């Protein structure tokens, strides 16, 4: 089936590896929902000839108007109270997040101290760096990677918050709350995924192979992984059937978005293949069997620096796909989409658990 052509807008923040052409991105901001306006009260003028009775007359004339204003302001006051409560909840959430970030920083410093103590212990025992082996999250020197340890602590906390948000979305959709309140939950869910992308960008600088392998994920999640995360076009296939029937315009927009995702994914995949070929050729260059290969390793290291760029580009594509999809859908549809995404991840994790605990029949 031929889909309508899609115009790509070059991203200003997205660098590409040399084999890749510029990838189009989308960056529409979510439109906020304005608060309702309340018409001003009618002011009653008192005639000059009734000046002596103005106080009594004005009270009598304004009484019905004041009563009308009070009745009209009730829905507005209710919305204001809800918004005030939401702002207070957001403030407390920011304070908790700040305290948690400080806790992570303290943990990172403790890990660095532990790393230094381990290194000193190895030196005292006369161990050479060349004799160390890579175990778990240890580098080739055997030192603990504090960036990875901090990420795993943060990801565990992220998953706890993710499960809570899924529960809140499910309750909110069942309770048929207002779109204003639902919009706040959608914004919170989107910000939660953006926080994960930020965390991944930081840990990629510490160890990009850790992100590429998806070690922090369950086995089923890793099975569907693409450059350290989900493939956006495949995710659209999962989410769209779970959303309410779309309008013709929405269907067209989703088809264009899916086609754009596939084109960007193909460009990134081709660039990854080219990078692998280049690194492999670099390591294989020179005469084998001589035992000296440090120059080849040094050149390969330089080329592998582009791998961090690929991970960041893939996450940028994932982020833009979520934001663009949210702008296409209504608030209620976007909430259902986030709920479906969260439950899909939970099902993958459940599949991993069941697979790990399956009974093994004797051969």
UniProtKB/TrEMBL annotation:
Keywords: Activator, Coiled coil, DNA-binding, Nucleus, Transcription, Transcription regulation
Coiled coil start-end: 97-124
UniProt name for this protein: Transcription factor TGA7
Naturally occurring in which organism (per UniProt): Hibiscus syriacus
GO biological process, one term: DNA-templated transcription
Record-linked SUPFAM superfamilies: Leucine zipper domain
Keyword Ubl conjugation: no
Any GO CC annotation of this UniProt entry: nucleus
Domain annotation DOG1: ranges: 148-358
Transmembrane helix in keyword set: no
């Amino acid at each position: 089936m031929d889909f309508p052509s899609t115009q790509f807008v070059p991203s200003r923040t997205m660098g590409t590896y040399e084999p890749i052409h510029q990838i189009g991105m989308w960056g529409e901001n979510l439109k906020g929902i304005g608060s309702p306006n309340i018409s001003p009260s009618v002011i009653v003028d008192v005639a000059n000839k009734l000046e002596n009775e103005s106080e009594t007359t004005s009270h009598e004339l304004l009484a019905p108007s004041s009563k009308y204003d009070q009745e009209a302001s009730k829905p507005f006051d209710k919305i204001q109270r809800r918004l005030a409560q939401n702002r207070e909840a957001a403030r407390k959430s920011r304070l908790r997040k700040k305290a948690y970030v400080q806790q992570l920083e303290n943990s990172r410093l403790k890990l660095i101290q532990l790393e230094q103590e381990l290194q000193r212990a190895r030196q005292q025992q006369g161990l050479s760096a060349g004799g160390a082996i890579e175990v778990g999250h240890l580098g080739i020197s055997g030192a603990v990677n504090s960036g990875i340890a901090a990420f795993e602590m943060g990801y565990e906390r992220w998953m706890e918050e993710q499960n809570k948000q899924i529960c809140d979305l499910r309750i909110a959709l069942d309770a048929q709350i207002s779109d204003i309140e639902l919009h706040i939950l959608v914004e919170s869910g989107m910000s939660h995924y953006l926080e994960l992308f930020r965390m991944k960008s930081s840990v990629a600088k510490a160890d990009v192979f850790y992100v590429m392998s998806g070690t922090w994920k369950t086995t089923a999640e890793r099975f569907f992984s693409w450059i350290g995360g989900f493939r956006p076009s495949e995710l659209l296939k999962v989410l769209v059937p779970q959303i309410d029937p779309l309008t013709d315009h929405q269907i067209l927009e989703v088809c264009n978005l899916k086609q754009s995702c596939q084109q960007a994914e193909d460009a990134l995949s081709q660039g990854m293949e080219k990078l692998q070929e280049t690194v492999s050729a670099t390591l294989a260059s020179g005469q084998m069997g001589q035992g000296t290969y440090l120059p080849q390793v040094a050149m390969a290291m330089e080329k592998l620096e582009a791998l961090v760029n690929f991970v960041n580009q893939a996450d940028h594509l994932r982020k833009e796909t979520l934001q663009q999809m949210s702008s296409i859908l209504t608030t209620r549809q976007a909430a259902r989409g986030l709920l479906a995404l969260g439950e899909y991840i939970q099902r993958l994790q459940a599949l991993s658990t069941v697979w790990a605990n399956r009974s093994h029949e004797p051969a």
